[in-house]
């Protein structure tokens, strides 16, 4: 299961309880890939409760591989820069 951009959009407490339950159920049973722009110290913004936050982080980091992508250029930003750098051909004049 891939969960992309966790924490990007604020969700209700009930929705975050569902997410925690999902992570707890998958813990040590199935793989989960998470992407987020938040460091672990900011995960309280996701789960809105310190105990739930710590329990979620504990389950996520146990047996995990963490890839820190800080400082790497976004592929979307790179594509936008490349597109801007490509000159557009002049448009024919309207007759």
TrEMBL record:
Gene3D superfamilies: P-loop containing nucleotide triphosphate hydrolases
Highest rank taxon of the organism: Bacteria
Positions of the IstB-like ATP-binding domain: 1-80
Molecular function as annotated in GO: ATP binding
InterPro entries named among the record's database cross-references: IstB_ATP-bd, P-loop_NTPase
Protein name: IstB ATP binding domain-containing protein
Taxonomic source organism: Oscillochloris trichoides DG-6
UniProt lineage: Bacteria, Bacillati, Chloroflexota, Chloroflexia, Chloroflexales
């Amino acid at each position: 299961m891939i969960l992309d951009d966790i924490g990007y959009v604020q969700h209700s407490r009930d929705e975050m309880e569902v997410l925690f339950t999902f992570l707890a159920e998958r813990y040590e049973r199935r793989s989960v890939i998470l992407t987020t722009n938040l460091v672990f110290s900011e995960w309280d913004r996701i789960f809105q409760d310190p105990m739930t936050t710590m329990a979620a982080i504990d389950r996520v980091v146990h047996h995990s591989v963490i890839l820190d992508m800080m400082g790497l250029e976004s592929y979307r930003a790179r594509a936008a820069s490349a597109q801007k750098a490509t000159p557009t051909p002049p448009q024919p004049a309207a007759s």
